[in-house]
Amino acid sequence: MAQIPSPVSRRSLLKLIGTVAGSAVMYDTMLAMGYAAQSDFSGPVKLSGDIKGASVLVLGAGIAGMTSAYELRKAGYKVQVLEYNNRPGGRNWSLYGGDTYTELGGATQQVKFDKGLYFNPGPWRIPFHHQGLLHYCRQLNVPLEVFTQSNDNAYVHSTSAFDGKPQRIGAVAADVDGYVAELLAKANSQSKLDGALTGDEKDALLQILRSWGALDKNYEYKKSDAGSARRGFDVYPGGGLSPRQVPSEPLPMQQLFKSGLWRAARSGGSPLFQPVGGMGVIGKTFGKALDGLIKYNCKVINIHQDDKGVTVTYIDSRKGGAPQTARADWCVCTIPATILGQIPMNIGAPMRNAIFSLSYTASVKVGLQFKRRFWEDDEQIYGGISHTDLPISTIGYPSTGYMKGGAGVLLGAYVVGKDVNSFGLETLPATEMVKVAVDQGSRIHPQYRQEFQNGVAVAWHRVPWTLGCAAEWTEENRAKNYDNICALDGRIVLAGEHCSFITGWQEGSVLSALDSIKRLHKRVVSA
Amino acid sequence: MAQIPSPVSRRSLLKLIGTVAGSAVMYDTMLAMGYAAQSDFSGPVKLSGDIKGASVLVLGAGIAGMTSAYELRKAGYKVQVLEYNNRPGGRNWSLYGGDTYTELGGATQQVKFDKGLYFNPGPWRIPFHHQGLLHYCRQLNVPLEVFTQSNDNAYVHSTSAFDGKPQRIGAVAADVDGYVAELLAKANSQSKLDGALTGDEKDALLQILRSWGALDKNYEYKKSDAGSARRGFDVYPGGGLSPRQVPSEPLPMQQLFKSGLWRAARSGGSPLFQPVGGMGVIGKTFGKALDGLIKYNCKVINIHQDDKGVTVTYIDSRKGGAPQTARADWCVCTIPATILGQIPMNIGAPMRNAIFSLSYTASVKVGLQFKRRFWEDDEQIYGGISHTDLPISTIGYPSTGYMKGGAGVLLGAYVVGKDVNSFGLETLPATEMVKVAVDQGSRIHPQYRQEFQNGVAVAWHRVPWTLGCAAEWTEENRAKNYDNICALDGRIVLAGEHCSFITGWQEGSVLSALDSIKRLHKRVVSA
């Protein structure tokens, strides 16, 4: 979910990526997301003025729906929320032992994790600059802990480079820095940058390069203590009369440049957070704060507006039964476009076309429980992400319960967009996806075979209430349809990550909701 | 404390640093420490064999002394520990509201922090690879949390660059990457790297550079969405119909290269930890685990060995009174060399010369309490470090209690080595150091003036029981004296960070202790 940057940046990134050969692509996509997620949240919303006793029907109790309901209620509106699932949160969702999940087609998975362990099928991290979502975490007293994203001790792995042996990210980063610095120093000292730089600048650049790349006095990147202090030693420094430190040999430049692993050299250094106990804690806590407002298990089948209000028809999504109706003066609809396009609704062509124009990214996540946290015990990986060119793409290590021993759940596959096809998901049932994840992951962590206990897989295109992971806007479509999907249509306004520039992130849902209810409120008080 | 890398790496780094002009020096030193702290810990120590009822006297209940006592007791030795302070931990030490600290000369500070807030005058972070110390944290059930070191949203600040305006680390890093990539791409495309690279490699390099530096299609680093996704936007992407994103302008290349701020472009991406509640929790918990073994307030005044054992004479360091003695078969002495050199002890010339050869680094840390955590509320800095060329050098933001509001304590100055002189410490009393820290820090955070409440300053050269921060080995001295300071002299063996290659870190104390007691034990069982 959260790896999909906002479309304009994504477009730029994809352009860059498009020219890069082979396996480099995925590292780029994976690592780029650290940058493309900033938010313009500028403080709590203030909805003042006479609302004349107005009522609002909110469709969907995900982050956008609950943000809307929370603020509208505070401003004095009569608020009802209809939700398809039997729980609040929407894509904000954690799976715990004892939970079940039924996908499109009816296949049901029983989650068998030990007590205290969880897996986030949807969003799993909150960048520090997502101040909108963090504002609601504070409001709701959701306890947060640090999410470790960058970990130099995790791996980058390419089946076609370095004999398929995973490389520590920090070593690759140090070597790329070193070689790039060496090459530039060479060009610089051979007066080949004369046109670009003055003499002073050239001197300053040389100093930068030497220190930054850990170059030797000849401005060359070679096996050294300084380099090994970054990339790791063969024998580490110790105490007393234990063996003396031995520096390590850099990866060969030619192989490194061709490997596609280089992209790991630039990863973000900004704090991220996660709720203690799983991302779903936000949804649950939000739901409690709105107790009595949300009606669960409501499958919306018709949305009809007239001059005076909006009538929504729904049925109990679990039991079926006779259709019921709810009515209010206004409607904030946060149902994903994939589902909304299937629901009869009397809106104008601009909003309708916008809804139909939007496709959703596919995404698969697999959570795997192992008997012991071998990634910590054996490999000293505490949180962070390993990247591979195998179809599983990503292994994410838990950012909680460090060094406590016992069983652990890691993210055993995280595949987004086109890569989903290469994972063979069109045909694989969930149990098979888990097997594939274990199989492929064991090439990076051989301990998988011995330690695996159970797993769960969520393919977002088969999640009945979203039929996809997140909205995908092309720049062309954005220019044509974005304003139309956001604009009020009579008494109906849409909200959700699909109505934002931060698609695929909860922050987009929050900001979209705030923007939509501000415009709705303005209409109400000025009416 | 912890910023002093092991000497070999440090030497290499200092060589690099020595050639870099002006303010760049300090950023380099500051940031380099992230690399130079790796450990060769290889698992719990096993002391097996017949110890024949032997007894050991451990001098000092710091990390080295307590590690020694803990393992020796486990192996069956009769263990006593003598400690100068009235608490365990040594340099592992946190100050809380209500504590007092009296420095050399008698000046006493009352710590006035609010409940729940603390300041670590000594070590403040545990790199993930310090597996020796982490092993004891696990053994002792010390709860750990993530220490945030790298934070792109913290600042680098130079009084002489960019009109003295602090720059976000992430923006500087992005711009350095961008310009360096652009320059190298230029050299590359002008066939100026022909000697160094084949055609294939040149193509691969160009792709690396474009993506890594966020270059445009002409391989130039300019204002762009891709660049702003790294360095920050002028207007961030938002939701609904809020204003569209606006990219930001990179810093001018010439100014940037000359500024000395560039070194911030490379900061470590590996997890670090801290004990929940302050670093001193380790010392306290260790002390409890050794309950009954440690005698506090013992100032050692003589160490005398004979054929059969070691006799140590001490007085109550608070009350004075008649000297007392303790005796054991063997002695593990962890007293810092600065103090040990003043204590009569019958050892051979090699160990004696080694002790006298060793000088200790000066260091100052200042803890400041503010009414509110403005660095979070106003500036979105959650943990991490800002660097400045002002004498305070460092501002460290707390890695705990994020977003909880209320008062907070930050590290308002952290000065090491020669920089201590530039801070004017020879003459300044602690209260003045606090004032200086507030004064200088307000140039980075103007909120200081309004929000400051109280502070405490610890200058390690005036700490009565260490007279310095950490041992400083030159490579020459290491070659001459290191083996001699580590070797058993009769029935006495030394231990501590000064007897390790990881000086200035607690890990050095642990590894030194383990190495020393292993050698001592070998002597005992083979006697």
In words, what does this structure look like?
Two copies of one chain form a homodimer. Chain A folds into three domains: 37-88 and 290-358 and 473-526, FAD/NAD(P)-binding domain, CATH 3.50.50; 95-124 and 361-462, Polyamine Oxidase, Chain A, domain 2, CATH 3.90.660.10; 169-265, de novo design (two linked rop proteins) (Up-down Bundle), CATH 1.20.1440. Chain A is 32% helix and 21% strand. Chain A has 17 helices and 26 strands. Chain A has a five-stranded parallel beta sheet with strand order 14-2-1-18-26, covered by helices on one side. Residues 1-37 of chain A have low confidence and may be disordered. At the A-B interface, α1, α2, α4, β8 and α5 of A face α1, α2, α4, β8 and α5 of B.
Provide a brief overview of the structure:
The structure is a homodimer of 527-residue chains. Chain A has 527 residues and is an alpha+beta fold.
Rg of Cα set of chain A: 26 Å
Structural class estimated from helices and strands of chain A: alpha+beta
CATH topology of the largest domain in chain A: FAD/NAD(P)-binding domain
Proportion of residues in helical segments of chain A: 25-40%
Counted up, domains of chain A total 3
Largest interface, counted with CB-CB under 8 A?
Answer: A-B, 123 and 123 residues
Topology:
The structure is a homodimer of 527-residue chains.
Chain A: H1 7-18, H2 24-32, E1 55-59, H3 63-74, E2 78-82, E3 95-96, E4 100-102, E5 108-110, E6 118-119, E7 126-127, H4 131-139, E8 144-147, E9 155-157, E10 167-168, H5 169-189, H6 199-212, H7 225-231, E11 233-235, E12 246-247, H8 253-259, E13 272-275, H9 280-289, E14 294-295, E15 298-305, E16 310-316, E17 320-328, E18 330-333, H10 337-340, H11 349-357, E19 359-361, E20 363-370, H12 374-377, E21 384-388, E22 394-397, E23 408-416, H13 419-422, H14 430-441, H15 448-451, E24 452-459, E25 470-472, H16 475-486, E26 492-494, H17 506-526
Parallel strand pairs in A: 1-2, 1-18, 2-14, 9-21, 18-26
Antiparallel strand pairs in A: 3-6, 4-5, 7-13, 8-13, 9-10, 11-12, 15-16, 16-17, 19-25, 20-23, 20-24, 21-22
Helix pairs in contact in A: 1-2, 3-9, 3-17, 5-6, 11-16
